[in-house]
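Can anyone check this?
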Amino acid sequence: MHAGGLGDGDGVRLHPRGGETFTTLEIKVNYLRPVFEEKLFASAKVVHRGRSVGLVECDVTTENGKLVARAVSTCSVLRGEKAEGR
């Protein structure tokens, strides 16, 4: 697992509403244990979704429930002209 595997494309992201998109302001991943050939599960939740900023957390665990990694992402919500073409 690499930081890109936990980034905006895989679970740690806001779900934009119509006419909205987002960009990442900050992303932090804490890797807690190595994984070689195990099935992993990601569980993400939106902790805060304001008008312009959102905060998302994601835990990655093994089948046995052992925590492998925790990611936290702060996103900026874009609307109107700022969201066009993104």
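Reply from J.R.: I decoded it. The helical segments are 3-6.
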